[in-house]
Fold:
Amino acid sequence: MIVDMKKLPQTAGLAQLSTHPSNEYAEGAQRIKSSIILRPGKGAEFHPLLGGEQFLFFEGRRPNYQTGALYFGGTDEQPFLVSVRGQLKDVLERDGEQALFEALKPDFIKWSEEEFGHEHTRRQGDIFAYPVLSEDGEPVCMFDAFQETFFESHPYYGMQSMGESRRGWHSLFGTRHLLDGDIVEVVESPRHDPRNTRVVRLLATGTIHAPDHAPLVLDTPHMLAQAVNLAPHVPPSLID
Structure:
């Protein structure tokens, strides 16, 4: 559903919404504490999500004829606003709200949920966590099983390796989410370019801390992955 910009709701959960005129020099939408300022241009669209708690906002076209950005915002635990890839508007319009949220999940989390169930997934902002072992020590999501099944259906991905365990405070994927505990990097080398290695997931135990979030306690080993389809030019955190 698209809301008429002249009838924009005043809130999205705890977030207070307001609009300022768009111009070619102004910044895009921004969050200042609990206030979210939207700058609609020609053809702007506002899509309420989760009964109005969250939203997807397309800026439309600015006076300098540049196409505006797409934003995902509202309230998670606290107000948040993040720029996301434009393709998510197509996903929402074509496949609906649930598909939009699925499009933010990393492939590893979606695979784990298909194999072992959605009930094990945990999240703090844009950081997803899935347990390797349940509380009674039984396997829930083993790394070897992931390798065998996931790579068969995703030939783009190459082999992965795990580094050595490190204990202490660690920034997760360059965000303000900090882990106090033990961490191991999972490094991927795509088959088409084996020299282009990158950290794709983290294996961790401990407690994750982040602004505006309750601590996320990981008593057993969990695989961590970051949300996808966040716009690359914006610091990638859904609430930071």
About this structure: The mean pLDDT is 81. The chain is about 15% helix and 35% strand. The first strand starts at residue 11 and ends at 12.
